[in-house]
Amino acid sequence: MSEATWAALGDDDLLTIRMCDLGLSIEGTELEPRIATLGAELDARGLKFRPHFWLSDEWFTPDGVPGIAIPFYLAHPRLARLELSQMLEVEGGDPDECLRILRHEAGHAIDNAYQLRSRPTRRRLFGLPTTPYPEYYTPKPYSKSFVQHLDHWYAQSHPDEDFAETFAVWLDPQSMWATRYGGWPAQRKLEYMGRLMRELATRRPHIQSKRQVDPLPRLRKTLGEHYSTKREHYGLDHPNFYDRDLRNLFSDAPEYAKRPSAARFVRKIRKDVRSTVASFTDSYQYTIDQLLQEIIVRCREQNLHLTDSEESTKIDFMVFLTVQTMNYLHSGRHRVAL
């Protein structure tokens, strides 16, 4: 199927298309100047190493490969819109966010290229690379032992992610890391990264393979199958723990029976509060949306209604949702999907 044909399809029809049939490439897309910017930043740090790039289903750098897989949806605006409709956000869709992810993945790629995991100081500062990768992790938002680069305190998820995040902050010309992390335990990691990269600047990589793992032309799953798996992975996983607070906002008392339905009201403000609370709490929009769906169901089941004006209730609901999300973050229930 030609690009012109599938790009004109509606979402339902587009989801039936196999990923290998999209016929996409990085060349000629907005990804090219972003990759060029990464190259300029590596040059500015005196690094001659360059990762190779290919399109796949997600962002990743495979073990032992000095290259970076970029998600397919960044290679075409129609697929970026599909990603938005399916996942409520487009990871890497903004140029600045894309560059942050590229820096992070370049940290993995240079780690692979020079086989840095065996170095004693790297293992002492960042932890053992042989630590099993968790499916989920529970972050400590106020820890000063880790840099903060990607969302969700990603450096805390695994020693290799800590290394890649530290590399990204060190590489970023706007990070001002010496000031921001001055006095933090994370500062020692950044200073080590500077020494390590100066050492590598004149060395040829041990591994120079251009191998591609799961390149887009080999992925035979449909877009619908891809998103079904992805939504399940990033879904909500916690018990109902907000009913009492919900009844402080709404009521099922007979005197409020003619007031607007709480379920209908939450549906009305859902998109706005979802994006706002996600930015407040550094959480996935998709996870918050799942929480909102649960709240709508609970409001309907309990026949709840507004007790105040919509304007006032929206403010109170925003506070309620932020508090519930932060409670979830800071309790044992919170797990961020890797």
**How large is the count of helical segments?**
14
The overall number of domains is 2
Give the class from helix and strand content and strand pairing: mainly alpha
* Multimeric organization: single chain
Mean pLDDT: 90
In terms of per-residue confidence, which ranges show pLDDT below 50 for 5 or more consecutive residues? 331-338
Main-sheet strand order equals: 1-2
Beginning-to-end CA distance, first to last residue: 33 Å
Strand percent estimate: 5-15%
Measured as a percent range, the helix fraction is 40-55%
The tally of strands reads 6
Task: Estimate the global geometry from the Cα principal axes.
Answer: globular
Over all CA atoms, what is the radius of gyration? 23 Å
Give, in order, the helices and strands: HHHEEHHHEHHHHHEHHEHE
The largest sheet is: 2 strands, parallel
